[in-house]
Design brief:
The protein is mainly β and 128 residues long. It contains no helices and 9 strands. Strands 4, 5, 6, 8 and 9 form a 5-stranded antiparallel β-sheet that branches. Strands 1-2-3-7 form a 4-stranded antiparallel β-sheet, with no helix packed on it. β8 and β9 form a beta hairpin. It is elongated and about 50 Å long. The relative contact order is 0.28.
């Protein structure tokens, strides 16, 4: 598991390889990832948007920007956690993701970025 803390917000990432899936007649390596966001700050915060940079070993780069995560804009009280699952499809068997969440601090009414640590997406059989 990969973890990073930014301004009292801890982001933990766990990944799984899910197999090969065909999308638009092209085989892709499918990965799921589980993100846990833990509010270790004394403030109420809300996740309002995210930006992902997705890379694969074929030098493909995809940028994903959008509101919330999995259709939600979670609000986290101090010491509260929020976990969600999502997916990523790569054309190669090795890749990585990184990015950030835009959050709002309800106390100061300011927006801040919470960095998502770079995490690897790897088909383990490739490493042998």
């Amino acid at each position: 598991m990969i973890q990073k803390i930014t301004q009292g917000i801890k982001v933990s990432v766990h990944t799984n390889y899910e197999g090969i899936h065909v999308r638009n007649e092209i085989s892709h390596y499918a990965f799921s990832y589980f993100i846990t966001i833990e509010n270790q700050s004394p403030h109420i915060v809300q996740l309002v948007s995210r930006k992902w940079e997705i890379f694969d070993s074929l030098n493909n780069k995809e940028i994903v920007i959008g509101d919330g995560v999995v259709g939600q804009l979670p609000i986290l009280e101090p010491q509260e956690k929020y976990t969600y699952r999502s997916n990523c499809f790569l054309e190669s068997s090795i890749g990585s993701m990184k990015g950030y969440f835009n959050m709002i601090n309800f106390t100061s009414k300011t927006q801040f970025k919470v960095h998502i640590p770079t995490f690897q997406l790897v088909v383990k059989e490739v490493l042998n």
